[in-house]
Amino acid sequence: MSDKVCVGAIAGGFGVHGEVRLKSFTAQADDIAAYGALTTEDGAQSFDVTLTGQTSGALTARLSGVRTRDEAEHLRGTRLYVPRERLPDLPEDEFYHADLIGLSVHDSGGALLGRVRAVLNHGASDLLEIEVPGESRTVLLPFTREAVPTVDLVAGRIVADPPEGIF
Fold first, then answer.
1. How far is 107 from 76, CA to CA, in rounded Å?
2. What are phi and psi of 100, to 5 degrees?
């Protein structure tokens, strides 16, 4: 598990006074401003976030040190991180996406199915993108209790009962 968790990304500038469009990856979008200063992945830049509103598919925000539209546009695509210790503890059956990435996935018999490459959500529910060993393809596995009955973060593995024909 990483000591930092990605909680958002800058989607570009908004307006002419240095505001940004901010994509939040938190459960409640505006919680992104509640975790204190956010940093770039390498920690080279740090931003205090003040939310100013919403736009189509994103929040609008002021970031400390960003005063012009050009500065805001230059940050487009920048992912924003928070130290893990600032995040709330989760209930037993909930997980941060960052903790699932890289886990090995096994069937109920113990056979390796692959490794979690990404966690995707296109609106309905989460999907685990699984890299299949020895193949270039990936498989999308629904992240439901039926398809994924066991997640063991300590052991670094997931036990899956995938729908017929998915692998």
1. 40
2. -85, -30
| Structural domains in the chain, sorted by start | 4-86 (2.40.30.60), 97-160 (2.30.30.240)
pLDDT for 14-68, tens place per residue? 999 999 999 998 888 999 999 999 999 999 999 999 999 999 889 999 999 999 9
Res. 124: pLDDT tops 90: no
What does the alpha-carbon distance between residue 150 and residue 108 come to, in Å, rounded to a whole number?
Answer: 10
Give the C-alpha separation, 32 to 23, whole Å.
Answer: 9
Which run of H or E residues covers position 63? Answer: strand 58-63
Identity at 151, one-letter amino acid code: V
